[in-house]
Amino acid sequence: MGKDAxxxxxxxxxxxxxxxxxxxxxxGGGLRAYRHDGLDYLDGYAEDEISPGSAGHVxxxxxxxxxxxxxxxxxxxxxxxxxxPERHNALHGLVTWARWELVEHSPDSVTLGYDLPPTPGxxxxxxxxxxxxxxxxxxxxxxEVTNLSAEPAPFGFSVHPYFxxxxxGVDDLLLRVPGRSRVVLDGRLLPVGVAGVTGTExxxxxxxxxxxxxxxxxxxxVERDADGGSAVTLDAPDGASGLRIWADREFGWWQVFTxxxxxxxxxxxxxxxxxxxxxxxxxxxxxxxxTLDAGQTWRGAWxxxxxx
Length: 308
Prior knowledge:
Blueprint lengths: L11 E6 L2 E6 L5 E6 L2 E2 L17 E2 L5 E3 L2 E4 L2 E4 L9 E3 L9 E6 L2 E8 L9 E10 L2 E10 L5 E3 L2 E2 L2 E2 L10 E3 L2 E7 L5 E6 L11 E2 L6 E7 L7 E6 L6 E6 L5 E5 L13 E6 L5 H4 L4 E3 L4 E10 L2
Antiparallel strand pairs: 1-2, 2-3, 3-4, 5-15, 6-9, 7-8, 10-11, 11-12, 12-13, 13-27, 14-26, 16-25, 17-20, 17-22, 18-19, 18-21, 21-24, 22-23, 23-27, 24-25
């Protein structure tokens, strides 16, 4: 990147407090870096890189994949662009590469916004706002999405961060996922059913090493905490470090991806842990799709707490 060339991810905003620091970016409205006491817990990317594997990006108005990009809603048949052409899918929504605008910035928080215009494949206008903050409890992300259209709109939401622990490989990570079921996938990584995890290699309801298991898996039927939320944990085998990735009651699904299809240095280097409001292909199945009425606002929050 030349001396005066802009970063591929656009403007960078750094926030810091209580030993926590994060970098939030304009392109994708997402998270490029997160560290605590100088240790990197996010497998992000450099300022002169294009975000790899949707790292840190906001995924809306749907997460994951839609088969053939085709769905029906409100009696209409709609066709999205196929943004994963090799699998003939529409992938990760419509805001992944959008340039978000600064709404507010303070030393420990930044709020970005993006107004999604209606398109032929998704003919609804949405206003998105994301507030990222750091403090004694770690990193916190608060999202809200408003339907600016005059009619109801289908909606789903997720974020795509990749996490790692210092000097711990993916195989050795102790993973806990509160999902009691998983989505069974076909060769295009699209749902063909749901299965319980009890007694299978996908049962991470108690912490255990990932080992050589390949994961690109949506987990549902989550065990809820007392406040209605849930959490995924990653821990070092010696207990020296760990992360708790939590989400509030708005998120009923967790996607866990061990990065096996990523190339180069990023191959199986970290684990994407994505809180999702709905499973893959939800616009077709209708499962847990949120219907935003005209003028309605959805709000959800999630965050990361290092074990200290």
